[in-house]
Amino acid sequence: MDILALVGALIGVAAVLVAMFFKHVPFSALLNPAAFFIIIVGTIGAVIIATPANELKNIGKLFGIIFGKSRNMAPMEVIDKIVALSEKARKEGLLSLEGTIADESDAFFARGLQLLVDGTNVNEIYESLEMDIQAMQNRHAAGAQIFTQAGTYAPTLGVLGAVLGLIAALGDLSDVNKLGAAISAAFVATLLGIFTGYVLWHPMANRLKRKSKQELLVRTLTMEGLISLGKGTNTRKLRDDLLAFIPESERGGSAGKKGKKAK
Predict the structure, then answer these.
(1) Contact predicate 76/246, CB 8 Å
(2) pLDDT at position 166, please?
(3) What CA–CA distance (Å, rounded) separates 253 from 80?
(4) Which of 56, 178, 211, 238 to pair with 80, CA 20 to 30 A apart?
(5) Within 10 Å of residue 222's Cβ, how many Cβ atoms?
(6) Span 237-241, mean pLDDT?
(7) CB of 162 closer than 8 Å to CB of 216
């Protein structure tokens, strides 16, 4: 599990609860079933209307991505692997790389390497892998959009909940002493809508987008590295070209050190 994502959510909840304590707002004020119903169920309904079924079925996986650890290779790990393959190909030829395909855990890397070993033209390899990357970006964008939509709908539904609460509160003015409590309860829906929208749903959408960019970097490094292998690019130049994709502060490890020496 990605502890930081969970810690962030808990900090958001704690911020509201602590603020309520300092403002002397009783925690029992949050026990408003009507507010929870209109915000949670209403948001779910709105998202279902806005999202195709084939995208909604992946919602469980999306939560797993948000709170789970990334299973992608680190950028430097990709560079190290490409450099090792380049050195092996220079000594033994491209066909010698076929034995490494079966042991490759990354499906994208294995697919590109298989195309390379099969003697596919580098332009065709580029087009094939580029299509794969574009499809990945489309899937990721669709997943993030679900949470973006939820973050947009929830605050608005909070206003709707407040209006319904005010209608109920002002519908009976026979007991003025209860009017203040009724109006206060009406705004619980607004609180929940803004909280879930801007502390949960929008941050989750942004987290998915950031993880998508990280995977895009890894796949781009993989594609560019394999294309360079197919072109027979010198190992040192190949390493330097791939290192240009990442900041110097992240160029740790053997490839980073060699890259600096080569410059």
Answers:
(1) yes
(2) 84
(3) 9
(4) 211
(5) 25
(6) 89
(7) no
